Amino acid sequence: MPRRLEGRRIFVTGGGSGIGEAVAKRLAAEGAAVAVTDARGVAAESVSDAVAETGAQTLGLRCDVGDEASVEEAVAAAVAEFGGLDGVVTCAGVNGTAMLHEMELAHWERILRVNLTGTFLPLRATLPHLLEAGGGSIVTVGSVASLVATNLNTPGYDASKGGVLQLTRSVAMGYADRNIRANCLCPGLVTTGLRVNSRALQGPEPEPTRSRVVENTALGRSAEPAEMASVVAFLLSDDASFVTGAAIAADGGLTAN
């Protein structure tokens, strides 16, 4: 395993499971100190404990990404523990299915609160620390839904993930002259609790729906979280020093179809 992130201090949201858990473990394996945060504090601490067993510096924290005070508190705790921050990865997200004309406002607002506001708040809270460090790297987790309509009756999810990509591009443009890069990972179908077990794939015929997505994926399968984590590690590292404002479609060829 390369140690491309030796000495880096990275704040990860949604780190209690799925892509976020894989990211936290991969970054630690590459030498980073990792703040593992999740709305489920117990899950964050569990992943942090597993990371600590490898000898990496880590901290497990509860963080509700849609709550300003919770985000500010978690970032402050990470900075106090590590002495600063050099990178951020925003993995927290939720999904849900409903035809737009049947969607309740509370459903819409919850998805945007977690996915879009839940990207904005961690970025706003961590950027001053990246600036203080002299620069850094940001990776947001969007979706193929950031790039194309999914036709899975997930308008709230699609809209929120489109917003995540545009927010990322705005940050990339606004902070490039301050040595901060920002990129958006856009996964396709991933074997995580959110995507394989999401309500979008638990309709009247969940397996045919999932099979249809896989059939439209050139590689003919869903991804493993570790495959997404390897892309994140690259984007955070100096190997990606000329990559910013990019939408990285790690989707097995789904959007190429």
In summary, what is this structure?
The protein has helices at residues 18-29, 41-52, 68-82, 105-132, 155-175, 206-215, 225-236, and strands at residues 9-13, 33-38, 58-62, 87-90, 136-141, 180-185, 247-248. By secondary structure, the chain is an alpha/beta fold.
What are the defining features of this structure?
257 residues, alpha/beta, Rossmann fold, seven-stranded parallel β-sheet, 7 helices
Mean pLDDT: 93
The 3D shape can be described as globular
Number of separate strands: 7
Number of domains: 1
Instruction: Characterize the main sheet.
Output: 7 strands, parallel
- In the CATH hierarchy, the third-tier topology is known as Rossmann fold
Order of helices and strands: EHEHEHEHEHEHHE
CATH class: Alpha Beta
- Approximately how much beta-strand content do the residues carry? 5-15%
CATH superfamily: NAD(P)-binding Rossmann-like Domain
- Classification by helices and strands: alpha/beta
Uncertain stretches: 195-205
Radius of gyration: 17 Å
Q: What is the name of the CATH architecture? A: 3-Layer(aba) Sandwich
**Helical stretch count?**
7
